[in-house]
Amino acid sequence: MATTKGQRIGIWVIAGMMFLGTVGGFVAMMVAPGNEAKDQAAFKKAQDEYTKATDERKKKVEAQANELSQKYYGKFSEFSSRVGAFEAGDVKELVKEDLVEGEGAEVKDDTKLAVYYIGWNAKGEIFDQSIADGKLKAPLNMDGPANTAVIQGWKEGLIGMKIGGVRELTIPANKAYGDKAQGDKIPANSPLKFVVMAIEKPADIPEPEMPEVMKQYYRSRGFNV
Known about the structure:
six-stranded antiparallel sheet
């Protein structure tokens, strides 16, 4: 059956679209590997730069921690002698005892400070501390006791001490971890003791910003960055 002019035009259009689709697919096949290689190269470059920046920050953090350790280790380490067993049943309320009164600013809810500490249980077992291998680890930085994720006994117990001071805290279970055990050395309903030293918060060493190409890569794989 003969085709009309309109039908012939339609056939030409369809044929043209099929041709362009074939050529486009061929071009895409030729170009995609090149784009993928470029994307991989860009990702690798960004990853290398980010790793380098992260390593440099780590070195700065370690250098800062070592400098602070040299300054405060002798003053703080002597308080390890305070560690010892105590009668858990006698701990009914939060008790604060200043061992050294500091000369700096008084700690309030929003005071920025850093803290070295030794924590132990009623058996006299240390469960965590700032002392390791004959020096001090990096201190715990706080943007104010009220704004930091610490136990209630710390939020209340640090208030009123002065920067440079050392304080012993005796903390009842309900202001520590309550009925939630924290490993073998902190069973449920355990009162705790700490010696804490408050120092000025050291200068912040900011984390390097992750390059956008890396963020996009991880987001495409379901990570929240």
